[in-house]
Amino acid sequence: MIDWLQELNQMLMKQPLLLKIIIGLMLISFVLFSLYLVLSFIFFPIMYLYNHLTDKNQTNVLSREDFLFGQLTEKIQGNTIGEVMEIGSESARSVYPAKFYRLQDQEENHLLPVGTKVLIIDFDEQGIALVVQSKNIKTLIKEE
């Protein structure tokens, strides 16, 4: 292998300066790209685990015992997924993906437009809020 490198070096010495620069830049680019690939393969499992453990939809889900009040920021119709902003607590507002809690509402293609006040009943395994429309949410919020 050393003989091969010596022959390559002697061949490069006989070439014009511009060709030496081009070959040198190509060699440096190849080494950097190879290093990038090696580091990517080493750190991919670590970053995958980090992303899995810090997934916002998994870590920001509130306690299953809590019933929260929310307002839709995207409509929900039938089996579609909308978006709900939690408005019941006095802390910072949180936004969650949302769908109907009751299968009956999904099957009847029930529509909740943007701005509808809802009650967040639960969260599913993916962190999606399961909601029902609250007719008397104003009185419930005032009682708290």
Structural features, described:
It is a single chain. The radius of gyration is 29 Å and the shape is rod-shaped. It has helices at residues 2-13, 17-53, 56-59, 103-107, 137-143; strands at 68-74, 76-77, 82-86, 95-100, 111-112, 117-123, 129-133. It folds into 2 domains: 2-53; 63-143, Nucleic acid-binding proteins (OB fold (Dihydrolipoamide Acetyltransferase, E2P), Beta Barrel), CATH 2.40.50. Helices cover 45% and strands 24% of the residues. The protein has 5 helices and 7 strands. The strands form 2 sheets. The protein has a 5-stranded mixed barrel. A two-stranded antiparallel ribbon has the order 2-5. The chain is of the alpha+beta class and 144 residues long.
Gap from first CA to last CA: 79 Å
Structural class: alpha+beta
Q: Give the domain tally.
A: 2
Helical fraction = 40-55%
The CATH class of the largest domain is Mainly Beta
In CATH terms, what is the architecture of the largest domain? Beta Barrel
Write the element-wise H/E pattern from the N-terminal end onward. HHHEEEEHEEEH
Keywords:
single chain; 144 residues; alpha+beta; 2 domains; two-stranded antiparallel sheet; 5 helices; 45% helix; disordered C terminus
Brief synopsis:
This protein is an alpha+beta fold and 144 residues long. It has five helices and seven strands.
Topology summary:
Layout: H1 2-13, H2 17-53, H3 56-59, E1 68-74, E2 76-77, E3 82-86, E4 95-100, H4 103-107, E5 111-112, E6 117-123, E7 129-133, H5 137-143
Parallel strand pairs: 4-7
Antiparallel strand pairs: 1-3, 1-6, 2-5, 3-4, 6-7
